[in-house]
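Protein: ArsR family transcriptional regulator
Species: Streptomyces roseochromogenus subsp. oscitans DS 12.976
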Amino acid sequence: MTDTAITGRALPHPAPEEIRLETVLHALSDPMRLRIVRELAAAEGELSCSHFDLPVTKSTTTHHFRVLRESGVIRQVYRGTAKMNALRRPDLDRLFPDLLDTLLAAAKRQSARLGDDS
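Structure follows.
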């Protein structure tokens, strides 16, 4: 049984068959959300919300995580008091082969071209 089952703090996520390409693309079109996804992809595991140092308010950060979760890009679970985030790579790779890898590679090239760290 997971912490969320015990505490009743489970967060809603779309089932894999409910994930739509246009919703995923919309979620990934924002620079802050793309930054979150890039960090999660590099970590190859769960990261807490507090790990991310985004140049936006806490409420805006919460909004970005909610958009990513509701689109099916990430999975969020509570572990104790921490909200942990993980990329739904297996689901996304199965539904949209090569999309995530292509997008992450393009974001890396853009970041190098523009000389930024985002």
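Remarks: The chain has six helices and three strands.
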